[in-house]
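Q: Joint fold for the lines below.
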Amino acid sequence: MAGPTGSGKSDLALLLAQTFNGEIVNCDSLQVYRHFDIGTAKLPLAERCGIPHHLIDILDPDQLFTAGQYARVARDTIQEISARGRLPILAGGTGFYLRALLEGLFDGPVRDQPLRDRLSVREARRPGSLHRLLRRFDAPSAARIHANDVPKVTRALEICLLTRQPVSRLFQTGRDALTGYRTLKLGLMPDRELLNPRLDTRCAWMFENGLVEEVRGIVALGFSPGCKPFESHGYKQSLQFIAGELSLKDAVFYAQRNTRHYAKRQITWFRRESELVWLKGFGDADDIRSSALERTAEFLELSQG
RNA sequence: GGACGGGUGGCCGAGCGGUUAAUGGCAACAGGCUGUAAACCUGUCGCUCCUUGGAGCUACGGAGGUUCGAAUCCUCCCCCGUCCA
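A: Joint structure:
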């Protein structure tokens, strides 16, 4: 179950889980964090209708998490669910996590913080130097990654340095794809003219319903405002509001804007996703729900037969 | 009524005689992504036409003027801000 934020993935996933004896596996890079509830539109426990939701609230805000880790944990989770004879249903908007899980990542080294720190110092001293370095180690990758995209240049270089091989060659060894499952990918794609106002409303609602208090609470627990999940829209602006850098009005405004940008990026991502069955509407619309049920029933029949 | 400051493309904001369809930034639109991905990055962005590259048209509050040439200088007018009455 893919689609941009606010398209109704959680709702629809719940319906599918109820209908087809399923359990839900979160595929959202922020809902994995504890305490980040309101701004991530986490489905409250009371609304989960007794359906188990996995990979939600599995980390503290200061814990680093990566797509690779996600893929490993998610695979285990899916396996357990199937072993129980139930249907695993993935739901979430983080396309990269979904791809890491389904298609896999290449078999490469995990991030190496000390190395990255050194590279970062080098880049700070001489901007562009990392990309030039990458060009020497692995010209194809350097051509593929824009020089300004420092994080990606860094990762490519990290791999080259650690494995003594060009990334472009390692990629050719293939990906560690998920096997043993047939998948049905449903994608929600409402009109953007309809999505945007919904996102704006939802975002304003979050601020009116305790988002800022939630942020204060997380900080009060001792977590640094520098933690990764605080970089996300809604949370970032709440922090700025608390610090007096933004008025509440502006905080809401910027959070709304960033959310719209994000939705657009998700759409761009999911459009490339292979074999995705598009449902052109919101997950809470009757026609979308019934066609989702239909597609799923069809798919399950085929898989069994 | 007087003295300054200012009016620039959807917005903010540079430019202050030619190399300017006009630096930047934002928004908008499109795209990319193999381990921090709600992150990070890229492209387009006045209009019309043809093939890269161009061609034409319309643009810097309004109207005139100076000049080979003006968003840039001058005059008048209209708005806006601050100060003095």
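Q: Anything notable?
A: The longest strand of chain A covers residues 22-26. Chain A has a mean pLDDT of 96.
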